[in-house]
Amino acid sequence: MSFTADRLLLFGATGDLAQRMLLPSLCALSADKLIAPGLRIVGTARQELDDQGYRNFARAALEKFMPADRRGGMAEFLNRLYYQPLDANQADQFQALADKVGPIEQGLSIFLSTAPSLFEPTIAGLVAGGLTGDKVRIGLEKPLGTDLATSCEINDAVARAFSEDRTFRIDHYLGKETVQNLLALRFANIMFEPLWNAAHIDHVQITVAETVGLESRAGYYDGAGALRDMVQNHMLQLLALVGMEPPANYDATAIRDEKVKVLRALRLVHPDETVTGQYRKGAIDGQPVAGYDDELGRDSDTETFVAIKAHIDNWRWKGVPFYLRTGKRLPQRKTEIVVQFRPVPHSIFAGRGARTEPNRLVIAVQPEENITLSLMAKVPGLDREGIRLRSVPLDIAMADAFAGPTKRIAYERLLLDLIEGDQTLFVRRDEVEAQWDWIDAIRASWATHGLRPKTYTAGSWGPSAAIALTERDGVTWHE
C-alpha cells in the first residue's frame, strides 16, 4: 500500500545513532522542505524526559554532530519533536506511547533500533498499543539476530504484525551515493556491462577498513566480531550489487530478486580461504593505541579482522575470486571496491619493449566518494629506445563532478524512503537469511577446525596470513 506517513516514531531516540545520524538527517530533510510540514516526530527511549527536555537534548546533538552550514531551520525542526519514555519490557507503557503518537489514519513509520532481545516484547507492545495497522510500516536497524536461527525468530516476530511490504530492513551502506552509483556505472554505460564477467575480470576486492577500536560498542562488538558486524550485512550487500544480473527495472522487487540470486550462489568457504585476526597495541596516525584485550579489559577470542576468498558459482562469475577484507585499527579508514580486469590477450607493443598493465576500476565509497579507472597510455617521446607505456588514472571525484547538490548523510535518503514507502534500498527477508546461511557456515567451519584469531599490530593491514591469502593466487591487496 502506497502512502506517505505523517507520523514518525523513533525508538532509541537518545542513543548514539540518533544523535549522530537520525536527528541530523531529519533536521536536514526538514530544512530542505523534503518532509511535509505536518510530519510529527516522536522519540522514545528509557530516559525520563518530557517534550521540552528532548528538544533540548536534540539541540545539543545537532550542535555537536551537524555541520553549521546545514542547521538552517533547526528551530522549526525542534518544534516537530515530541518524546515519551518507554521501557519496552513493560507492555502497559505502550498505550501512553500510542497517545503521544496520536492518530495514525494518515500513516505511521517506525524506526526501530533495539537489542535483539527486545524485538519480541517491542512488537508485542506495538500490537497492544494499536500501532501496527495497515497504515503502519517499520524500519529495522541491525543487529537482526546473531545467526540464522535468531534472525528468523526476530523476522517471525515482526511478520506477525507487519507484512513484508511494510517491513524495511536497514543497511545504511545502501543509502550511500557511490553504492547507488555502482548500479548506474554498470547499467547506464554500455562500455562496462559487456565486460562485467569472468571472461574479462580477473578478481574483485572489497575492503572495509576502520581505524577505530571498540569505542562505546564493547558489549555488542565482543559478542559479534568482524564477520557478523561487517561481512554479514554491509560487505555482502556490496558483493551482491557487484555480482547481480541486470534487473528488468529499477524497483525494489527487481533489484532485490537479483541480489538474492547472487547470495544464494555463494560457494561454501573452505577453511584455508579465511583469515581472522585480533589487534594488539600499536599506533594509528602516530598515536599509540591499546590492544583489543586491553580495551576490553579481559581476554577474548573475538575476531577484529577477517579476510575471505569467496566465489559466486554461476555462469557470469565462475572462477573469479572475490576477496573480502575488513578490520578495526587498520592504517586508514576506507571502504572501496576494486574490479581488476584481465590483461590484454596479446600485446603488440611487447616487441618494442613496452609493458602493459591490466585495467583496474576502483570505486571508493568512503571517506571520499570517487571512481577511478586506470588506462594504458603512451608516454610522450620519440621512442628511439622503444615505446614506453604507463598506467594513467581517469578520476571522477563525485564532489567535483556534482558540485551543486549537497552531500547528504545516507540516513537522509533511507529515512525519507521509509516515510514515503520506497523499499528499493532496503533488504528483504530472503536476502538476510541467505546472508546468515553463508556466514553461519563459515563460523561452523572455524569451530570445527579450531580456528583462532591471529594477532596483528594496530596500524597494520592485518595478519600476514591475509597477505598470503591473495598472494598465493598472484594477487596483491589494493592499498
Write the layout of secondary structure elements.
Blueprint: E1 7-11, H1 16-31, E2 40-45, H2 51-65, H3 74-78, E3 81-85, H4 94-101, E4 108-112, H5 119-128, E5 136-140, H6 148-159, E6 167-169, H7 177-187, E7 201-209, H8 218-243, H9 252-264, E8 274-280, E9 282-284, E10 287-289, H10 292-296, E11 305-311, E12 321-327, E13 334-341, E14 360-366, E15 370-378, E16 389-397, H11 398-401, H12 410-420, H13 429-448, E17 454-457, H14 464-471
Parallel strand pairs: 1-2, 1-4, 2-3, 4-5, 5-6, 7-12, 8-17
Antiparallel strand pairs: 7-13, 8-11, 9-10, 11-12, 13-14, 14-15, 15-16
Structural class by helix and strand composition: alpha/beta
Number of helices: 14
CATH superfamily of the largest domain: Dihydrodipicolinate Reductase, domain 2
- Count of domain modules: 2
**Main sheet attributes: strand count, strand direction, barrel closure:** 9 strands, mixed
Low-confidence residue ranges: none
Task: Give me the count of strands.
Answer: 17
What coarse outline follows from CA principal-axis ratios?
Answer: globular
- Mean pLDDT across every amino acid position: 91
Which strand-content bin applies to the residues? 15-25%
- What's the alpha carbon Rg, rounded to whole Å? 24 Å
Largest sheet, spatial ordering of strands: 16-15-14-13-7-12-11-8-17
Which CATH-level-2 architecture of the largest domain?
2-Layer Sandwich
